Automatic annotation (TrEMBL):
Alphabetic keyword roster: Nucleus, Ubl conjugation pathway
InterPro entries hit by this protein: BACK_BPM_SPOP, BTB/POZ_dom, SKP1/BTB/POZ_sf
Location of this chain's protein in the cell: Nucleus
Main localization category: nucleus
Protein name as it appears in the record: BTB domain-containing protein
BPM/SPOP BACK domain segment(s): 71-121
């Protein structure tokens, strides 16, 4: 192996800043720039099987969901098998559907990720909605008349 003779490992497919943050996490168990780097770190965490870092990235991405980034976040969750993030993104999209549908990410979801769009609609269709109870209109109350002595009849 080249690594054993040169004492170097070449990682070409991950950005240098992401590798630095990943190594920082591996040595300290913390990630100071997690919030800013979560979309890129989740990819590295998945690739290098850093489960705890991946979970931390999922949590950071869940907290950062907006109408603008929800669809892109759902795509990330699908790509990296991040189940907690996937479910949270789907719920967010359904709760904020009007705003999300105005985003560029929605158009990307519709045109490029139809299987995820189907999953969003399935979740919406199967969510627990309390049944609408139809009741009859209230009965009219009988008119009460009062007598001159102040007693009602």
């Amino acid at each position: 192996m080249k690594e054993s003779s040169t004492s170097e490992v070449c990682i070409d497919d991950v950005d240098a800043e992401v590798v630095k943050e990943m190594l920082h996490f591996m040595y300290t168990g913390t990630s100071p720039r997690l919030d800013a780097m979560a979309p890129n770190l989740i990819a590295a965490a998945d690739k290098y099987d850093l489960h705890r870092l991946k979970v931390m990235c999922e949590q950071a991405l869940c907290l950062a969901l907006t109408a603008e980034n929800a669809c892109m976040t759902l795509v990330l969750a699908d790509l990296y098998n991040a189940d907690q993030l996937r479910q949270h993104s789907i719920n967010f999209i359904n709760v904020h559907a009007n705003e999300v549908m105005q985003s560029d990410g929605w158009q990307d979801l519709v045109h490029q990720h139809s299987q995820l769009l189907a999953e969003v609609f399935k979740a919406l269709a199967t969510q627990q909605i309390p049944p609408i109870v139809h009741t009859q209109p209230p009965k009219k109350r009988s008119k009460q008349t009062s007598s001159l002595d102040g007693n009602s009849r």
